[in-house]
């Protein structure tokens, strides 16, 4: 399949954060199903708003690499430490400003991750904790204001379902708890920094059927990713599944970063202090398998979004992963 020759374009005036975060929410929210519309004739590019599974030309890949290199001079260590130490404060500020108006509900969730509505058949554990009597437990980490959690609660009517969600922004968690759709009988929201691997979770190890990470792992410092994933893996039941969707290498958002925003290779800080990493499939595979999980799916979703009015093409790259904890495993995984 030939990709159109146009180089990634952008809408003028869109701020960095606006572009990156909006696209991780609203643009994706419109996508009916993964892999349904293919561009076979480049002349048709402006006939639709988006195309699935676009292939990149070598020339395009090289241009992206060059662009990334141009802005790969990292900020000084003291600046990096500051962004790391105050990471949750920047997100608190973000949610104080945007409240629950920024991200749109993730309507593609159930097409991509049917595990969120169809129960896997797994073992039970018996200790006392919120949702202890549930037969199907899902935890979303980095839940923001609930754009994943509330659609799950609405769509999955299994009476045995209990959904946990956490974020290190107390402002975001408060917005989840004060949402009229928050039902403490079916849901439990709490503040948790997933990179703090020593901290206890309000649920025991080996208690979760599904763990969801939607555009959150990319917000962590790359040095903290492995330990965080390994810690989370302990929470899964044997046979439980970790589901992730996040930014891929050379996504348009990465190519848009200007000089002075790079923290380390493929890791950047936005104008509002929030940070973002752009993954390859191999890096994610390594993170999950080193946490003792087995691959079920690891795909790259290259999508061409089109602004027909302005005749612009925008190349988005997202990675989607499903990794399972082996049925043979105990709750202990290597850290
Ligand atoms: C791009 S938003 C995605 C929100 C949500 N998953 C969604 O799909 O709408 C990233 C979220 O991750 C949270 N986050 C970033 N680093 C975190 C950490 N170390 N621990 C917990 N949450 C974190 C942020 O506060 C923010 O709510």
TrEMBL record:
Gene Ontology molecular functions: tRNA (cytidine-3-)-methyltransferase activity
Record's protein name: tRNA N(3)-cytidine methyltransferase
Family: Belongs to the methyltransferase superfamily. METL family.
Superkingdom classification of source: Eukaryota
GO BP terms in the entry: methylation; tRNA processing
One Gene Ontology cellular component: cytoplasm
Catalytic activity: cytidine(32) in tRNA(Thr) + S-adenosyl-L-methionine = N(3)-methylcytidine(32) in tRNA(Thr) + S-adenosyl-L-homocysteine + H(+); cytidine(32) in tRNA(Arg)(CCU) + S-adenosyl-L-methionine = N(3)-methylcytidine(32) in tRNA(Arg)(CCU) + S-adenosyl-L-homocysteine + H(+)
Source lineage: Eukaryota, Metazoa, Chordata, Craniata, Vertebrata
Cited Pfam families: Methyltransf_12 (PF08242)
EC number, UniProt record: 2.1.1.-
The entry's keywords: Cytoplasm, Methyltransferase, S-adenosyl-L-methionine, Transferase, tRNA processing
Subcellular location: Cytoplasm
Subcellular location, principal: cytoplasm
InterPro entries listed in its UniProt record: Methyltransf_12, METTL2/6/8-like, SAM-dependent_MTases_sf
Domain Methyltransferase type: 139-241
CDD domains: AdoMet_MTases
The protein's enzyme class: transferase
Function per UniProt: S-adenosyl-L-methionine-dependent methyltransferase.
Region (Disordered): 1-38
């Amino acid at each position: 399949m030939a990709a159109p020759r146009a180089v990634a374009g952008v809408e003028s005036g869109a701020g960095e954060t606006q572009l990156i975060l909006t696209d991780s929410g609203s643009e994706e929210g419109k996508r009916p199903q993964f892999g349904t519309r293919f561009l076979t004739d480049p002349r048709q590019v402006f006939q639709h708003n988006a195309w699935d599974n676009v292939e990149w030309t070598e020339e395009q890949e090289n241009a992206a690499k060059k662009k990334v290199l141009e802005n790969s001079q990292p900020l000084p260590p003291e600046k990096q430490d500051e962004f790391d130490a105050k990471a949750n404060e920047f997100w608190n500020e973000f949610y104080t400003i945007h409240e629950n108006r920024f991200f749109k509900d993730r309507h593609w969730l159930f097409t991509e991750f049917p595990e969120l509505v169809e129960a896997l058949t797994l073992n039970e554990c018996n200790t006392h904790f919120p949702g202890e009597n549930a037969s199907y437990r899902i935890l979303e980490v980095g839940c923001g204001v609930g754009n994943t959690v509330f659609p799950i609660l609405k769509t999955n009517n299994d009476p045995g379902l209990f959904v946990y969600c956490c974020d290190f922004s107390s402002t975001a968690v408060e917005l989840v708890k004060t949402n009229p759709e928050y039902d403490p009988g079916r849901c439990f929201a709490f503040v948790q920094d997933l990179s703090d691997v020593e901290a206890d979770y309000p649920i025991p190890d080996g208690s979760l059927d599904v763990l969801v990470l939607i555009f959150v792992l990319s917000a962590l410092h790359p040095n903290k990713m492995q330990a965080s994933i390994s810690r989370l893996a302990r929470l899964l039941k044997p046979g439980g599944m970790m589901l992730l969707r996040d930014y891929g290498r050379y996504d348009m958002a990465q190519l848009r970063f200007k000089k002075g925003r790079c923290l380390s290779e493929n890791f950047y800080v936005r104008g509002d202090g929030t940070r973002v990493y752009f993954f390859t499939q191999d890096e994610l595979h390594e993170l999950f398998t080193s946490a003792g999980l087995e691959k079920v799916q690891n795909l790259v979703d290259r999508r061409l979004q089109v602004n027909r009015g302005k005749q612009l093409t925008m190349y988005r790259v997202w990675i989607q992963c499903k990794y399972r904890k082996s049925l043979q495993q105990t709750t202990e995984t290597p850290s």
